[in-house]
Each structure stands twice: as C-alpha cells, then as structure tokens.
Amino acid sequence: MSAGASARLFNAEAQRRGDAEIFVPASSAVLPSSSFLLPPSSFLRRTLAVLLLIAVSRATAAPEPTAVTFLQGYDPDLPESPVTRQILALARAEPRLNPQKWGGLTLPGAGGRAPFMLSLAGGTAPDIYFCWFHIIRHDIEQGFCHPLNEWLGEDTDGDGQLSDAEARWPGWRQVPPLWRQVATRDGKVYGLPMAGIWYYGIVYRKDLVRQAGVDPEYIPATWDEFFRWCQRLTFPGKQVVGAKVQRGQRAFGLENRPWSWLPWMQAAGGSPIVSVRVSPATGRSTRFAMEETRFLAPDTGEDLSEAEATWQANFDSPEAIAAAAFTHRLAWAPWLRDPQSGEPVDLTPADLAAGRVTLASGREIAFAESDVIRGVARALPRLTQDLPQLFAQGEVVALFSGAELVEQLTRDLNLPPDMVGIMPFPAARPDLKPVFQAHKHFYSMTESVGRRPKAERDLVWRCIEQLASEAVNDETVKQKVLEGHARWCTPADLERLGFTEYLDEVPPGIRRNYERIAGGEILARTEPFAGFWQAVSDLIDRRLLGVLLADTGERFDYAAALRHINDDANRGLMFRAPEAVLARQRPLARVLFGIAAITAIVCCGLAFRRKPGAATATPPLHVQRLDERTLVPPPKKNHPVSASLRLRVSALKSLLLPPSSLLPSPSSLSPWLMLAPALLSIAVWSYYPLIRGAVMAFQEYRIVGETAWAGLDNFILVATDKGFWAAWARTFHYVGLTLLLGFLAPVLLALMLAEIPRGKIFFRTLYFLPHLTSALVIALLWKLMYDPTENGMLNQLLGFFGVARQTWLQDPSLAMLCCILPGVWAGAGMASLIYVAALQA
Questions:
Q1: Interatomic CA distance for residues 259 and 57, integer angstroms
Q2: Residues 716 and 729 reside in one and the same domain
C-alpha cells in the first residue's frame, strides 16, 4: 500500500471520528512548511500519525518473493512442458514463489554432474534436482540430500522404513515398495519418485522383419530363439541406401552402454548387486537380489528385514558370465546361410578348420572363408549417436531403447509408427522370465534447503509435491494424445483419463506387454541403486564392452575381465572394502610408511645441511675484524681521532644498534615486491592444491559434511590393486617408447636431410608441417588416418597392398603406439635442426 493511499484512509477515519485537527495530505508524506505554524501538540500528533501510517503500509506490503531453483524438470524455455506448466500454475496460486532454472558453471569435457558437484562444494547448489534412481543412495550417503520427513512423517517404530500408518502425506501410499526402500535410509526419506514409469526393451523395425519372411508379431522367448531371429534378419551383403559405409543389414545394434547390458544379466536370473544378511538365530548368511523387498531366510523362514545388510557386487556370477557370453555370441558367433534353403547354419571351431559342415539331415555343405558370417550384430565399441540413424536407414533392425526413441524417430525422421515394435529382453532359458528395464527417478532437495527458514522450506516442498504428482503424468498423456502419439501411452492411463477411443491405436503387441508386466509374466528390473554404480559402469565400458565389441574382441577373455571388475567394485570402487581385510594389512602399511617417512626426513636433512665453511664467508677488503665478533670499517687516513678511540666507538655502536645488514633497504625490497604477485599466484594455484591433496590422501573426503580420517586405508587399497601396478608398467612402457622414438626420429631425419641428396624438400615439409599448420587441422588429419572403417586413410593404404584393415586406436596392441606417433612427429622437426648443424659442421 502506498503512502498516499494510507493517508486517504487515515483522513477518512479521522473525519468519521470527528477529529478535525489531524490532516494528512494524500499527495505526499512530507508536511508542508505551513504546518510549522500549528501548535506544538498538533504538529507532534500529525508527525506521529504519518510515521504510524508509513509503518503500517510497509507491514501490509506484499512479502518478498522466495526464489526456488530447479536443476532439470522446470525449464521456462520449454513452457509447454507438463512439468513447467505445473510449476507455473503453482506460482500463480502462490505469489511468494519465484521459480528459477538453475544454471551453474559448465566445464567442457567434464562429467554430466560436474557443475552440480561444484555447486555443492561452493554452497550455490539448486534447491531441487532430478536425481537418478541408481545414484540417489550415493547422494544420500554423501550428504547431498535433505530429508523429507518434515512433511512425510516420522519413523516412529524404528524399523528404518516409513510405513503407510506412519506417513502423513497421502501420496506416500502410491509409492512402490522398491522405490520406498531406495529413497529411505535409517528411517529418513530423501526423495519422491516421479509419476509414471519408463520401460526400456528391444525396439525393432516391423517392415524389415516382414521383408525377411518373419512374422513381425512374433516375440522370441529365449536367447536361442532371439539369436535365430537375428540370423534371419542379418544380410551382410545387402546394399543399404544412404549408408556411409556399406556393411549390409545387421539384426541388432550392440552399443557400448553398460546399463543396456544389465538386462541380459537379469534375464539370466542374475542380480548386479546382492545384499547379504546374517541370521541372528542361526548365524547363516543369505544373499538377496537387489530388488527384493521381503527378506526371509530360505531354510527357516526367519524375517531378516531388521538384520544389517552388507552390499556386494555380483558381476562375476554365473549369470553375468552367461550374459557376457551371449553378447560375445551376438557379436562374433560364426555361421553361414544354407545355399539351398536359405536357413542359418551354426559353425563350430572344428567346422571352421575343416571348411565343411554336416547338417542334421546328413547333407554336407562345403564353404569358403568368405561365406562365413561373424555374428548378427552391428557392434559400436565407442559411444556415439549414430545408432538411431542406422536404425532409421535400415542398417540395423533392432536396438535397445524405449518409447521416447520411437517418438523421436516418428516425429523427426518421419518413420511411420506402424513400422516400429517393442519387445522385452528374452529369457536365457524357458524356465526364466523376460525382462524390461524400468526407469522411475526421483526429485530431491539439496542439503542447503535445510538451512532456510521454515516458510521457505514449505514452499520448496510444495514444488516437489507438484513435480511428483500424478497431474504431471496426466498432462504428459494428454499432450501425447493431442500430438497423435496415443499409441505410446499405457492403456491404463488412457482408460483412467477417459481416452477410451484411442485404445485401438495402441498396437496389440505393446498392449500385451503391459498386460504381461501387470501379471508378473515380464519382470521389471532396474539399475543398481546401492553403492557407486557409475564408477563400475565406467569399468564395464572400458574393460568389457569396449574390448569385446572392438574388431579384436573375438578372442577376448570376458570371464577374467568380469572377475577383475567385481574385485575392484568390492574393494572400494563401488562398496567399501571389508574392515577385516583392511585390519590385516594395516600393520605392514604402518611399517612401510614409517620407513618411507624416515627416509624422506634423512634425505631432506642431507639436502639442506650446510657444507663446512659455508657459514664463514670471506669479508670484503674494506672490512676488518674486531675480536672476531665486530665488523668495523677501515679508518680514514686524514681523520683526527686516534685509532683506539674509533675502535671503542664502533664497538659501542655494534652493541647498541642492530647490524645494518638486518635492516632492509629499499633496494633490497624491490625485487621481492616485484616477485610477490608471481609467488603468490604459484602458492595459491600450485602449492596449496598440492598440500591440500596430500592431506586428502589420508582422508575419506566428502564434499558436504564432515570429512573422516582414513589413515593409510587409501594407500592400502591402491597398493593392493593389481590395476595400479599394471598402470605403472604401462607408464614405463609408454615412457620407454616415447624416449626411443623421440630420440631416433630426429637423428634419422637429420641424416636424411644431410646425407641424402634427393627428397630434402619433401622431408622438410613432412616433418615441419606441425609447426606451420593449425593444431585443429593436424588433429583432424590424424582422425582421418586412424579411422577404423574402410574409408580411413591408413586402411585405404593397407588395402592397396592387400592387408586387412586395422582398428588402430581401438586395438589394445596398437593404441599406445598410435598415441605416441603424433607427438614424435610434432617434435622431430625442430629437434633435428641440432643434429643437422652438427653433421654439417
């Protein structure tokens, strides 16, 4: 309320009461100069009235808006998004709310969560963030999230979970049990799951299946059926229109995505991680799958839900090895097509060696090496965005994805919706069930919300409540219906919202999938939610899939790779190493650390020890010694005072006044003042991080919360890691090759430039090109040369001589040499000038 409006209201009230002595001008809160002619009491009353009105107007003014920042979800640049519309509707109903899209520092080449981590460390984190299902447990353990029990309710019975009876928020009853378990730790709930659920499976082209003579509605039930289905859809010699590299048509696109490999393991009956619970009664330990919500001992039926769970990685289980074996089979299994019937025929190593195979009917087929087909999949060992384009062009028939890819293809690439189908991952055996991968992520508050006032926290909670509400899912369904994509909605949602006329648009196969999921015939499985799955995912990427899918992966030992991955996961990478193991190794670690510390102290003492005679520097010629303690300047020849008196005066001065060498002069301070900015910069940006990092080596460092002292545990984990010593060996190998090639290349170039009479201009141009050309051009040049396809420059050169193409950077035996050669080439030109000068001299 303005001051003028307040004055008018006050005057009306004064007139109603009959008080004619007080008058407040409505145009201004300042009294005119004539008011000083009023009596003092009248002036004082008038002044107090104005001050009271100003105070009342400020008190009744609109409160300051409360900013709530969002990381993902709310985006004002996408006003038609259901999430954005829901938050904007809340802002209209709640004027205090000022929703803002959070924007942090963007680091080129950094991980997807790097800006979020930096904001947590710097205290500028968003209030609400979209937290993935497989990472929320890690965020809870690290203290990134603020508990929601303030609004949900408290765990009063102490069982570690929030039951329906304890919950105050009605929506908690609709949260599935597994998602309750994932978001809860010690009775505290740290996230609300989003409405709806996404299912990922195998998306395939019905038109290409129909062209191969296979029923497009046929869904393989087992791995063997799926492999046979893929064989019938694989034609390596087919010319695909628009393909960059003609490699024919492959049935399945195998991509280097660890989370897309997990359903194969789960379809074999395995679990990536397991919880181990020990029975208090019998002392026996039982392993439970990660998605298990009822913990009953199989032998006694004892309820172990309250027993402490110890999580372990399970990537070396028989089911995981079977999944890796089937992936290898999809990529590398040899087979051929029967020339008479066109049916696929599997080949054994003995058949390959003999060059012939005998069918079950007794007929024998002789074949050449060129008739053998390796695998049924298009392997992509590097993570790219090419697979959807390959799918749209018909180079691959099927790939791992969900409904959102189908919507993208039908919307952006004009692919008819009737041409696309979705199937689950087939089971490994007939006694197992197929699998869909389920995604249902969370919205969480960051820990900084806990430091805000209660009213602001309530506003943040109302935002999370809206984000997780069923209304967002309903708006998403309505939007899909309006866009003509009702076929990709769940039939249950269409019926619940009254869109029954669109049920016929849902393909029968997709409707049958939803019915089988609801009936338990198809399992819905998730990514690992306990431990730090992201780190192990990187290992599976680099050590398993990246090598298995490369051109040299046919003889890859995937079982050994999985064992090493599982060992690293259980030794601190995903789960903390067992305390018993660390306790056995700590005494030896302390002894070795003490020896190293004593050795370092002795070396430092020897390095800084003064040499004999270094402290007694020879004085200048004009300085004399007095009793070997006082330095006195030589007497002047024409001075009238006697020499003995001068010596006494000098001795007295030396006792009463400090030596002149200890008093800094302006000339001696100038260099230090000029060096101070550089020294300060080096200290801040080099030495402080070095010292801080050295301290962190002895800590279990946390970005948020208190950091615990770890002692020598980190060094024990590193020293007992075989990969650490293997990295040392590779480092020495790399350094040795670099020094050898870096020394020989300039010498050989100098000999060619000095001794060979012809081709000097060519060699000079070749080796000095890196110094005369842009670094970007050089990088693109090497990228073209190392292209692993037939179009690569080096592969074209090898093909001219009849040599098979190489994968270069994807080949473990060639990758290191390929990385060293560009650096040697870049430095050989300038280094050769020294040797050329020596040879010509």
A1: 60
A2: no
| Residues ≥6 apart with Cβ < 8 Å to 814 | 806, 807, 808
Tell me: do 279 and 413 sit in the same domain: yes
112 and 145 inside one domain: yes
What is the three-class DSSP state of 515? helix
Contacts of 60 (CB under 8 A, 6+ apart): 1
Give yes or no for residue 731 having a pLDDT over 90.
yes
Helix (H, G, I), strand (E, B) or coil at 298: coil
Q: How many CA atoms lie within 13 A of 282 on its CB side?
A: 14
What CA–CA distance (Å, rounded) separates 700 from 686?
22
pLDDT at 675 over 60: yes
pLDDT tens for 344-394 read: 999 999 999 999 999 988 899 999 998 999 999 998 866 667 778 888 889
* Pair (8, 134) in one structural domain: no
pLDDT band at 626 (very low <50, low <70, confident <90, very high): very low
Task: Enumerate the H helices of 441-486 as residue ranges.
Answer: 454-467, 470-482
Do the domain assignments include residue 414? yes
Is residue 389 in some structural domain?
A: yes
* Whether residue 449 sits in one domain with residue 518: no
Domains in the chain, number: 6
121-130 confidence digits (pLDDT tens): 888 999 999 9
CB within 8 A of 816, min separation 6: which ones?
A: 730, 733, 734, 737
- CATH code (residue 259): 3.40.190.10
481 in a structural domain:
no
CB 406 within 8 A of CB 171: no
Pairing state between β 377-380 and 188-189: unpaired
User: Quick check: helix, strand or coil at residue 188?
Assistant: strand
Q: What are phi and psi of 623, to 5 degrees?
A: -110, 140
Has this prediction a pTM greater than 0.90? no
Q: Which domain holds residue 337?
A: 198-439+501-573
Contact criterion met (CB below 8 Å) for 129 and 139 = no
Last residue of a domain, one of 59, 83, 98: 59
Distance CA 371, CA 400 (A): 29
Most distant CA pair in the chain: distance in Å?
Answer: 134
Question: What whole-number distance in Å separates Cα of residue 400 and Cα of residue 409?
Answer: 14
- Asked if 263 and 437 touch (Cβ cutoff 8 Å), the reply is yes
